Automatic annotation (TrEMBL):
InterPro entries: ArsR-like_HTH (IPR011991), HTH_ArsR_DNA-bd_dom (IPR001845), Metal_resp_trans_reg (IPR051011), WH-like_DNA-bd_sf (IPR036388), WH_DNA-bd_sf (IPR036390). It comes from Sulfitobacter geojensis. Keywords: DNA-binding, Transcription, Transcription regulation. Pfam families: HTH_20. Residues 1-95 form the HTH arsR-type domain. GO terms for molecular function: DNA binding; DNA-binding transcription factor activity. This is Helix-turn-helix transcriptional regulator. It comes from the Bacteria.
Amino acid sequence: MDKNHALDAFAALSQATRLDVFRLLINAGDAGLPAGDISHTLGVRQNTMSTNLSVLARAGLIRSEREGRSIRYFADMDGMRGLLAFLMEDCCGGRPELCQPVLNELACPC
């Protein structure tokens, strides 16, 4: 992940509703959640939620799959791993291999 992509991800997560959505989708795991359930759970109007989901998707933090007339959303674990790796790439005095166990622990194999 490059610096600009990381900045997009941080900008997406810097808004309260989007951070709540991302955390909710991480919690949902492989099952993900339909857009309507996300809106209902967080108490956010669907048109507002649609905008927030689009921002998270453009930042590479979530992905979606169409199921008939509904769309199911999932946390993009590769995007999250990329962001964590970007944050830690210069750790340990520029020796990222020393931090790999931490990255492995943080990024579940979901």
